[in-house]
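As a warm-up, study this chain.
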Amino acid sequence: MSDAENVDARYLPSPEIPATDYPDAPPLQPPSMSKPIVLQVGEQQFLVSRDTLSGSPVLMAKTHANWESGKQADGSYFLDLDPEAFKHVLRFLRHGVYPLCYDNVKGHDFALYAVILRQADFLLIAKLVTWLSARQYLKAVTVETSARVLEEQEAAFGLHGTSESDTKTQYHPSWKTKKRYVCPRGIAVHYDNPGACGHACRKAQGDAECVYDDCPVLSTLVVKEKTAFNRQLCIED
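Now compare it with the structure written out below.
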């Protein structure tokens, strides 16, 4: 027998018990599944239906219509749980969507995952416990990284462009020195192009060694990180 079945048997009042065995008890009434109830979770309140809570045998037991002792003066049911984590638990109960606490800058919020897991375990939400324990959120979000180096003019003028919102681009410029060929005759169009020099240039050079200028060159390392979201992994089977 599963834990969920054990909890149902222990906590939910049995409709088969004759009311005459408890003369002072009010007649047992089945709870209205459509009527919303208020949960006071920590310092926040949540309005939910019993249909939503049916995914947790513990919540169903704590908010059963015949358990008036669980109510506060304002009619709400108090749960001493972290409300921020409970939002994710409630979203799962409502929509069957697993929690994804991820930020492109900070990454995964592992501390929040740990609290959600503790709550899911306490509330006996088996599928949520299994998903979080297997750290499926790491597979739900993946980051593909690529890098290339832009040299000279491309580095100076190739930095403009647009990218999709799931792609982050970082630029790392740096300067280096490159030797550029100088024509012996000082012809500008031959600069950095020794193949352009002909017989006259070689005659002008004679036995002297080739001359080169040390020129600063801009080089830019471009790193792109593309975040991919696997929607199917975040939806309950």
